[in-house]
Specification:
The protein has about 350 residues and is an alpha+beta fold. It contains 10 helices and 7 strands. The strands form 3 sheets. It has a 3-stranded mixed sheet with strand order 5-6-7, covered by helices on one side. Strands 1-2 form a two-stranded antiparallel sheet. Strands 3-4 form a two-stranded antiparallel sheet. It is elongated and about 90 Å long.
């Protein structure tokens, strides 16, 4: 018996951990596919980084796109690491609410790395533009023929563009179904990848036509998009840690519809006079409290406990994301006054 198992056994009569969360069968299959897709993404991005490194040249836009592609590996990697931890650690006496927040931590790591790299590339690209650096794209010899390096750069960027477009769209649908913000961030990172590649191709073509500043301007455009994405994702991760009310995965300012469904469910019960709900996100699932004023016809404690236990079973059938709710009977609601 391990130390952890021994400690769990010793404390089982003192503390009550939450239940381990299990996805419904259809979502479990989607998660399995999402994990495979992330594995494919890592292998694909490594190939992109190698190909682009071999064709970098002196193009600022290529350099920025290469850095962006290198960074893109992080969200997919932290997604798989987070699940490897989560899958092995059910709730125990030490982490009684489980390991759901490992996804929030992973989300913050990926987002902050994106922000730092965005700020660095903004500085690097802006300085290249201010110093009026003229990039030179020369020729190389391949199979006895002289080839403009710009064509090789564009070919490498197309490899960064086309698969990323399909991977991002596929992941986006999984992220919404699984309410997984790391996967959602990764899907958006793939979107940034193909947009970056498109801008870099424009910069290289501009240099080919003798417009020297096109390259640095394209790099700056790419860098600003990376920094903007990094800032928004980091902000979202921090608000999750601060237990902001649950929001829709693709719209951080829109309250999640489950908030209202839970309220309506309890409001419709004939033994509930009035209700208030408090929810928070823990990774992909919701925890929270439901405060109810029992109706006057509830006469005994046993009757009330029975009603609460039955409603707990029923509310969890509404949506798989409802994982742990505390239903608390109260005499009235405290009025929260703004300071």
């Amino acid at each position: 018996m391990s130390k952890l198992e021994k400690a769990n056994k010793e404390h089982s009569d003192k503390f009550l951990s939450t239940e381990a969360h299990e996805l419904p069968d259809d979502k479990r299959n989607k998660l399995k596919k999402a994990k495979k897709l992330e594995g494919v993404t890592i292998v694909y991005l490594i190939s992109v980084v190698i190909v682009m490194y071999l064709t970098l040249g002196s193009s600022q836009a290529m350099k920025t796109a290469w850095l962006e592609d290198t960074l893109s590996i992080i969200p997919a990697l932290v997604f798989l690491i987070a699940y490897s931890i989560y899958d092995k650690r059910p709730p125990d006496h030490k982490f009684q609410y489980g390991f759901h927040k490992v996804f929030t931590v992973a989300f913050l790591i990926g987002s902050f790395a994106l922000l730092l790299m965005g700020l660095y590339t903004v500085y690097d690209s802006a300085m290249a533009l201010i110093r009026a650096e003229h990039p030179t794209i020369g020729n190389t010899t391949m199979f006895g023929h002289t080839v403009w390096m710009g064509w090789l750069m564009i070919a490498a960027l197309l490899w960064s563009f086309i698969p990323a477009l399909f991977l991002g769209r596929r992941k986006l649908s999984y992220a919404k179904e699984l309410h997984n913000k790391i996967l959602f961030t990764d899907a958006n990172t793939q979107k940034a990848d193909w947009q970056t590649a498109g801008a870099a191709i424009a910069g290289i073509i501009g240099v080919g036509f003798g417009i020297w500043w096109f390259d640095s301007a394209a790099a700056l455009f790419i860098a600003l998009n990376i920094a903007k994405d990094g800032f928004l994702r980091t902000k979202g991760a921090i608000t999750d840690i601060m237990e902001q009310v649950p929001t829709e995965i693709d719209e951080d300012t829109k309250l999640h519809s489950l908030d209202f469904k839970i309220y309506e469910f309890f409001k419709e019960l004939d033994w509930v006079k009035d209700v208030r709900v408090r929810l928070r996100e823990n990774g992909a699932v919701f925890f929270g409290e439901v405060f109810i004023i029992p109706a006057d016809h509830i006469q005994t404690t046993d009757d009330l406990i029975g009603k609460i236990e039955q409603s707990y079973k029923e509310i969890r059938q509404i949506d798989w994301k409802i994982h742990d709710l505390t239903i608390q009977p109260v005499k009235g609601f405290k009025k929260v006054e703004k300071v």
